[in-house]
Amino acid sequence: MFEGLSKRLGDVFDKLRGRGALSEADVDAALREVRTALLEADVALPVVRQFIDGVRPKAIGADVIRSVTPGQMVVKIVNDHLVEMLGGTVADLDLNAIPPVVILMVGLQGSGKTTSSAKIGYRLSQGPQGMAAEFGGSFSVKRKVMMASLDTRRPAAQQQLKILGEQTGVPTLPIVPLEMPLAITRRALETARREGFDVLILDTAGRLSIDEELMKEVADISALSKPQETLLVADAMTGQDAVNVAKAFNDRLTVTGIVLTRVDGDARGGAALSMRAVTGRPVKLIGVGEKFDALEPFHPDRIASRILG
Ligand code: GDP
C-alpha cells in the first residue's frame, strides 16, 4: 500500500533515521512529497493546501514508534487524516422520509447522471437479494422505484433513461413530448404518489459548464420536488475544476451527497477529496463501470490509498 509515497518519504527520511520524534523540518520535507502526491492525484490546489495545513500539526512532534520508519509514520498520519477528511466511514443514502422519497440527480453533462440514476434505481429496487455484501443500510430494503428524466434539452435524454429503465426493470415516467421540466416534475410527483412508489429518482438536464439558466432550472426543480437526497454526480477524472463544479452546485442547492463515476478508469480519485472538502458532503456511491450493476458504496480508506498512490 502507498508504495509511491512511502518510497518517496523513505528517501526523504533516509538521512534522518534514528530520531525519536518528527521535527518541523522533517515534517515539512515530507509534506512537500505529500503535496506532490496529492497534486498528481488531481486534488484541487486549494484543497491540497487545506489538507497540508490540517495534517502538519498532527505530524510535528509525533513520536515515531519503534517498529516503523519516520517515512512510514508520516504516511500513516497522512493516510489517517485523508480518510478522516473523506468522511471516515461509508455514508448511507438517507431515504427516511414520507414516500415518495425524492432523489435529485445533478451534475455536468456527461458526468454519468443518467447511468447513475439507473444504477441507483436498480440497486434500490432489488433489495437485499443478490446484493453484494458491501451494500447495507438503505439498500437492504426492497423499494418500489420510479425514475423520470427532466432533461428536455438533449433530444435523446428521456429516451435514454426509458431504455435503461426497461433494461433494469425500473419503471420510468411515460414521456409526454414537449412537456417542460417543472411540469414533468409535477407529473412525476403526482404519479409516484398515486401509484404508491417509495422512491422517485429525478434525472436533471446536464450542463457543459456552469450555466445560469440551467442552474435556475435545477433550483426550481429542487424547490418543487423537495428532494431528500440531492446527489451531485461527478466524473473521477475531474481535476482542478472539481472545486468550481462542487461550489456552483452547492451554492444553489443543498447537495447531500456525491456520486463519483468512472472510478474503474485510471483516475486516482482526487476529485473525491476536492468535492468533499468544498461541499462538506460525503461521497456516497461510486460508479465502477458502464453496466447498471456497476455501483458500489464509497470506502474512504480505499480511495485514500489510491490518492496517495
Ligand atoms: P449524463 O450526461 O450525466 O447523464 O451522463 P451519462 O449517464 O449519459 O454517461 C455518459 C457516459 O459515461 C456513458 O457512456 C456512460 O456509459 C458512461 N459512464 C457513466 N458512469 C460510468 C462509470 O462509472 N464507469 C464507466 N466506465 N463509464 C461510465
From TrEMBL:
Keyword Nucleotide-binding on entry: yes
SRP54-type proteins GTP-binding domain ranges (all copies): 282-295
Coiled coil: none
Organism domain of life: Bacteria
Annotated positions binding GTP: 107-114, 203-207, 261-264
Membrane topology designation: Peripheral membrane protein
Catalytic reactions of this protein: GTP + H2O = GDP + phosphate + H(+)
EC nos: 3.6.5.4
One Gene Ontology term, aspect cellular component: plasma membrane
Main localization, broad class: membrane
GO molecular function, one term: 7S RNA binding
Record keywords: Cytoplasm, GTP-binding, Hydrolase, Nucleotide-binding, Ribonucleoprotein, RNA-binding, Signal recognition particle
Subcellular location(s) per record: Cell inner membrane; Cytoplasm
GO BP annotations, alphabetical order: SRP-dependent cotranslational protein targeting to membrane
Subunit relationships: Part of the signal recognition particle protein translocation system, which is composed of SRP and FtsY. SRP is a ribonucleoprotein composed of Ffh and a 4.5S RNA molecule.
Role according to the record: Involved in targeting and insertion of nascent membrane proteins into the cytoplasmic membrane. Binds to the hydrophobic signal sequence of the ribosome-nascent chain (RNC) as it emerges from the ribosomes. The SRP-RNC complex is then targeted to the cytoplasmic membrane where it interacts with the SRP receptor FtsY. Interaction with FtsY leads to the transfer of the RNC complex to the Sec translocase for insertion into the membrane, the hydrolysis of GTP by both Ffh and FtsY, and the dissociation of the SRP-FtsY complex into the individual components.
Family: Belongs to the GTP-binding SRP family. SRP54 subfamily.
Record's comment describing the protein's domains: Composed of three domains: the N-terminal N domain, which is responsible for interactions with the ribosome, the central G domain, which binds GTP, and the C-terminal M domain, which binds the RNA and the signal sequence of the RNC.
Protein name: Signal recognition particle protein
